[in-house]
Amino acid sequence: MTARVSLADVTPSIALGPLDGRYRATVAPLVDHLSEAALNRERVHVEVEWVIHLAQHGVVPGAPTLTAADEAYLRDVVATFGADEIAELGEIERTTVHDVKAVEYFLKRRLAAAPEGSALREVGELVHFACTSEDINNLSYALMVRDAVHEVWLPAAAAVADEVAALAVELKDQPLLALTHGQPATPTTLGKELAVLAHRLRRQLRRIEADEFLGKLNGATGTYGAHVVAVPGADWPGVSKAFVEHLGLTWNPLTTQIESHDWQAELYADVARYNRVLHNLATDVWTYISRGVFTQIPVAGATGSSTMPHKVNPIRFENAEANLEISSALLDTLAATLVTSRLQRDLTDSTTQRNIGPAFGHSLLAIDNVRRGMRALAVDAELLARELDENWEVLGEPVQSAMRAASVAGVTGMENPYERLKELTRGRRLTADDMREFIAGLGLPDDVAARLAELTPASYTGLAASLVHYLQD
Q: Fewer beta carbons within 10 Å, N or C terminal of the chain?
């Protein structure tokens, strides 16, 4: 076999996965929050804030007071964390073979390089004071996930729900032949059906917006053991709570070495459920396209098929389906795995949490595809009108319901309404004349007969159009 170039050795490096390759531009905003570099930057941030917190509150006797300039210097280490710092941290970790220890040494270098006379040169041992690695990691992940959700994922997820809602309002009066079990059923409006999906998406978003992000700082087995030995006079639970809340997180008072990750399982279950509702939207819109309800606006220069030039494939919705399934599978795995840690600690969560980025990345990619796909849709109103006019049998429901009401009111000759309509309509296609002739022969009160005679499949949509207004609540 002819030798090939090793793609693993090509420069710049080639991505193994599609999120860092083909789809990089779409998911790039998540890199700031859920990448390995983002994790290390957040670790530096937590370590910096811990030093400042200990010094500000005089927790450790003898620790010098930091000036505003000292605090600004420390926080600038986080603000300027970029390519050079990532490389430096990587070099340190090759020696320590421990990622959090590398962060500690990295920060101590910065303290040693502080300006002459700065108190920062004296606080090196406050870095990682009484901490286990998980004290830093759990807070870092909570901050990363919180910001990824609220700054990147939620705005995109809310935008697609809003766009579906806007289309629902636009199409609230557009009659549509409903299909239940794939068979013609009571007509609705296209807007009302889209409103159902927008309402479902928004309900999940409200759950996600309310999800908590928990954190802890209590030592190697959650007992504050090292803390109380080193500084027995401090209110360590109070210090811990104040620090966690200073970071904008919810304090977890009872943990083992690790924060229990239950909040992550709750969040990922909610995001996965949102994914699945969006998946339902994608499959429904795909079906509407296949049925001709929606047509797709061609993109200039785009190719739908390599051999069939007429095709405009619903690829946005198909891509979304696949990525939502991958995202949900990853989120399900994260939620199931992270709630279990053997006794006081095992490391399954360490490698598992490194897949949070791909889980959200595939969801974000799907959201982008749905938004782009929805913007390229147009309604074929003529087809919808034709479908409705070909299915007069769907009026069997209101006619038999009117017969029941008339029977209750004392009108004679209204016996067995369901059975009579079943005999008339089941397995048959009726015309307008067929239905009106049947109505005329029922002996209904004149006003009821007139109301039914004026009814058409297109006008038999009940309150569908007005129900769309519930989206505003």
A: N
Tokens for 221, please give them: 């087995």
Q: Is 121 exposed, middle or buried (0-12, 13-18, 19+ CB in 10 A)?
A: middle
Q: Do residues 7 and 14 lie in contact, with contact meaning Cβ atoms separated by under 8 Å?
A: yes
Nearest to 314 by CA among 286, 347, 339, 283: 286
Torsion angle in degrees (nearest 10) through CA of 56, 58, 63, 67: 20
Closest CA to 202 of 149, 288, 278, 282: 278
Read off the pLDDT of residues 46-61 as tens digits, 9 standing for 90 and up.
999 999 999 999 999 9
The CATH code of the domain that includes 187 is 1.20.200.10
Q: Extract the tokens encoding 36.
A: 């390995």
Structural domain span for residue 415:
391-468
Residues 351-355 have a mean pLDDT of: 93
Q: Do 197 and 344 have their domain in common?
A: yes
Unique residue bearing structure tokens 């990619």? 365
Tell me which amino acid residue 113 is: A
> Does 274 share its domain with 139?
yes
Pair 39, 170 in one domain: no
Same domain for 440 and 373: no
Q: Same domain for 301 and 283?
A: yes
Of 64, 90, 119, which residue sits at a domain end? 119
> What is the value of pTM for the model shown?
0.93
Do 370 and 409 lie in one domain? The reply is no
pLDDT tier at 310 (50, 70, 90 boundaries)?
Answer: very low
Tell me how far apart the alpha carbons of residues 291 and 278 are, in angstroms, rounded to a whole number.
20
Count: domains in the chain = 3
DSSP state of 65: P
Cβ 331 vs Cβ 271: under 8 Å: yes
Q: Mark whether 433 and 340 lie in a shared domain.
A: no
The model's confidence at residue 307, banded by pLDDT at 50, 70 and 90, is very low
At residue 308, the pLDDT reads 44
- Whether 300 has a pLDDT exceeding 90, the answer reads no
Place of tokens 């997180």: 249
Same domain as 192, residue 51: no
Nearest to 230 by CA among 47, 48, 53, 63: 63
Report percent pLDDT > 90 for the chain: 89
Tell me which residues are annotated as active site: 181, 305
Between helices 396-408 and 417-425, what is the axis angle to 10°?
A: 160
Helix (H, G, I), strand (E, B) or coil at 188: strand
- Interhelix angle for 190-210 vs 262-291, to 10°? 170
379 DSSP β-pair partners: 294
Task: List the alpha helices (DSSP H) in 174-304.
Answer: 190-210, 225-230, 236-246, 262-291
